[in-house]
Amino acid sequence: MDVHWGARSNFAIRIEKIAQSFNMHYFIAPIYNLSPLQEGLPNRQFGVAILSKYPVLKAENLEITRLSTQVANPKPELSQAVDS
Known about the structure:
two-stranded antiparallel sheet; mainly beta; 3-stranded antiparallel beta sheet; 5 strands
């Protein structure tokens, strides 16, 4: 799921609109947390989203070692995840 990522999602939080449509709750676990394309805009994030009919009382996005698909010649490193 992408958040403010690019034009294909109109830089929106698509999961938020989906959750509202179905009267559900959600949590986003970003894998990438990158600077915005323009200063003053929110960070661009891409990752996994969870929809739930129950409120999400607590959720945590743990950092794991991975290879980036966003940089040339990647080396194993911790993800750029953020806590929610």
